Amino acid sequence: MDFASLAAQLNAGTILPELIVIVTLLTVMVGDLIVGRQNSAKWTPYVAVGGLLTATGALFTLWDSPNPIGFIGEFNSDALSIVFRGIVALSAAVTILMSVRYVEQSGTALAEFITILLTATVGGMFLAGSDEFVAVYVSLETLSIASYLLTGYTKRDPRSNEAALKYLLIGASSSAIFLYGASLLYGLSGGETKLSTIAEKISLAGLDNSIGLVIALVFAIAGIAFKIAAVPFHQWTPDVYEGSPTPVVAFLSVGSKAAGFALAIRLLVTAFPQVTEQWHLVMTTLAILSMVLGNVVALAQTSMKRLLAYSSIGQAGFVMIGLVIGSDAGYASMIFYLMIYLFMNLGAFTCIILFSLRTGTDQISEYSGLYQKDPLLTLALSICLLSLGGIPPLAGFFGKLYLFWAGWQAGAYPLVILGLVTSVISIYYYIRVVKMMVVKEPQEMSEAVKNYPPIAWNLPGLRPLQVGLILTLVATSIAGILSNPLFTLANDSVTKTPMLQQALTKTRPIAQGVEQKTAELPQPEIHS
């Protein structure tokens, strides 16, 4: 085989954005070794953010690519993967902006933190486009191991060590379960690892209704549900969110979750078409449990980080409605919701980081009367929380509106009604925080707010945090009103993905045939 044919089969241009992130990672790591810890903190965050934004721009050059398959079928740079890779990269960029001051104040090395975060980003981006089990598992473990390291990064904090240990033990178990499910699929398909051909080989072997396929499905869903923090695989979430460094929590809640949903769509739609009804039933159950438990338990929380932990569980339940529907509108509304969830959730975490830097606490009761000392922080946190609750005309309202409307059109009435009820419940605990900040009288201010330091943005590392705060505030405010471009992007990512269109065309003829047979039935005569 000559070099030209090898290069054509590899088609390395499909992973250009990931290559840019890897080069950025190596630049940060080597630069830190050369110039030293003190000097590297002045430029490494900006190099990292610049590399991530460049990678995001490179993603759009791959849109409508005539040949999206790379590395002999292991990687698929289709429209769906491009959008999810963009979400992961942007979440990492905003996370770096909010982490500069936080990491420096904790006394740990900033360049090492950014290096590990970029490693997790590479894993998440590869996971969104992997179309072969070996690539899926390597990407998943790259993301997971880097996440474990980030969770325990502030090693002088006992809570961070505890969170890392819990995350590691539960994560290792879920990875083992997922790998066992993958090994079952490998055996049932006669030694096939490509997701796109596994289902075909299983059908040729006549194993469409085998118990092994159902067991493989259960194990695969267990691994995915851990990554997206769906009930009952959510046990790690509250403790890890509370004990981890707050920027890490922000990345896990958006970047890691988006990568998990990308894996869920690609794996379930491609490898399990024979058991579509079964995985729809399982995911429906997970969505119901996640919406109910996440939003109800959040009512009793006293810590902002734990509140957003249970909130993220509930939000995963909402997003799963789009996955369960399994239509063009369902997938598009799911992707659209994840895009705006990026802004509003990272905005809320940016506010929590800023408040904890200035007061040293994240207790909800300590936010009493905050508007009198810090109007910008109060406004940003209020808008992000109200958007998460789905209050119009903010971005979260339109995200839930599209999701619930797609569900209603598909006939998933119980899911939509439950989603509406749990959304109302979530509004209560979001507004409770807003009321704590805005409605309290001056004499009701908490001790933390009474001792609030003078607002100064010229301290080292606070300018990037301010930029991240304003960007997420503006995006959350206007993304709802100007949601049409984002929804067009989400819709195009579904219609231009052959994998999804093939899965949808297989289900449409069945439905059309049922309608045709119903129309051909003799109609009963009605006599007056």
Helix-strand string: HHHHEEHHHHHHHHHHHHHHHHHH
Number of DSSP E strands: 2
Query: Whole-number radius of gyration?
Result: 24 Å
Q: What is the topology, as strand order, of the major beta sheet?
A: 1-2
Indicate the structural class: mainly alpha
The average pLDDT value, as a whole number, equals 88
* Shape label: globular
**Uncertain spans, ≥5 residues at pLDDT below 50?**
509-528
Distance between the amino and carboxyl termini: 81 Å
Measured as a percent range, the helix fraction is: over 70%
What composes the largest sheet?
2 strands, antiparallel
Strand content: under 5%
**What's the tally of helices?**
22
Descriptive report:
It is a single chain. The protein is mainly α and 528 residues long. The chain has a domain at 284-502. The protein contains 22 helices and 2 strands. The chain has a two-stranded antiparallel sheet. Helix 5 (79-105) crosses helix 21 (484-495) and helix 15 packs antiparallel against helix 17 (395-409). Its main location: membrane. One of its GO terms (biological process) is photosynthesis, light reaction. InterPro entries: NADH-Q_OxRdtase_suN/2, ND/Mrp_TM. Pfam families: Proton_antipo_M (PF00361).
